[in-house]
Amino acid sequence: MKLKKQKIAILGAGSWGTAIAIHLHKLGHEVKMWEYYSENVALMNRTGRNPLLAGIPIPKQITISNDLDETVHDASIIAIVVPSHTVRKLLSNLKGKYLKDAIFVNLTKGIEENSLKRMSELIAEVLECSEDKIVSLYGPSHAEEVSRGVPTAIVAASKNIHTAKLIQDNFCSTNLRVYSNSDIIGVELGGSIKNIIAIASGILDGMGLGDNTKAALITRGLSEMIRLGVKLGAQENTFAGLSGVGDLIVTCGSKHSRNRYVGEEIGKGRKLEEILDGMSMIAEGVHTSHTVFQMSQKYDVVMPLTEQIYKVLFNGKNPKKALTELMNRDPVKERHSIPED
Q: Going by C-beta distance under 8 Å and a sequence separation of 6 or more, which residues neighbour residue 107?
């Protein structure tokens, strides 16, 4: 049964956090939004806008503050929407401040450095809460479009399908259709690895290459998702869904994709540090390229695209040389290294 008027805390007031807050407010929920930087809080409260979502008004009923205690107080749903490398610190500050029966919704895409944990694993570890209370909400969903009510479909994944369906009921609308899934491993890996492939896609655009090349890249990137996912316990068919193929389509081709933009600028010859210094938002694929490359080595999974993007980003490898090496690998079966049923 659909629950009415939840008290929802949105932790992270970037473009995606703000878009989700506005969406949930329209559904009738009581929404509070937490932002780390007090100057950003003051700006949004003064102007009624988030500069990252130009022209989209924030309803006055949405409380915006940098008081974490006040934001999560009495919240039945707590959404995590901050960059992946800041999640552990946020969770450490959050520990002990929430109700025992609160549900945590992760909207952060990425893998933690060093621990190589997915975001739901991190939430469970730091907050010492049951994984049955954690949902990851992923899929092809640019904040710029969701905030304008552009029809969008995403997936709510949890080890407990009933928890996933509860979030599905409370987040679903005419403009934002939510599906449910119990394969949280596959959903999180797909939504994270696609950012690496988006960087690679941008590099191809920056180099002036064509549709054939991009189609090959996206398809082989999907194979890498499947290989790592299956090795870690995900279901292969999950990657044919919204957080696999769907996310690949939107991030590899969209003008809104920060990761594709980073790749495009690299393909044009610019240095990574210079590109990142000029950006106001985080390109998660840069961090994820490092962590997923580490995972491929740890779990002995063949991921040649990920390896080459890692070397381009962190070792200064020439993208043209990386592409040449990929094209000259020994011929293999299309489904190599993927276990057969």
A: 12, 16, 17, 20, 79, 80, 81, 136, 137, 138
Mean of all residue pLDDT scores within the chain: 95
3-state helix, strand, coil in the chain (%, to 5): 50, 10, 35
- Determine the Cα–Cα distance for residues 38 and 265; give it in Å rounded to an integer: 32
pLDDT tens digits, one per residue of 73-99: 999 999 999 999 999 999 999 998 877
Q: Which two tokens stand for residue 212?
A: 């054939």
**Residue ranges, the chain, pLDDT below 70:** 1-4, 340-341
Question: Catalytic positions, please?
Answer: 194
Last residue of a domain, one of 126, 148, 182: 182
Same domain, 174 and 196: no
Helix orientation angle between 87-94 and 119-127, rounded to the nearest 10 degrees: 30
Domain that holds residue 263: 185-327
**CA 259, CA 265: separation in Å to the nearest integer?**
10
- Full-model pTM: 0.94
159 three-class SS:
coil
Residue in the block written with tokens 């594709």: 260
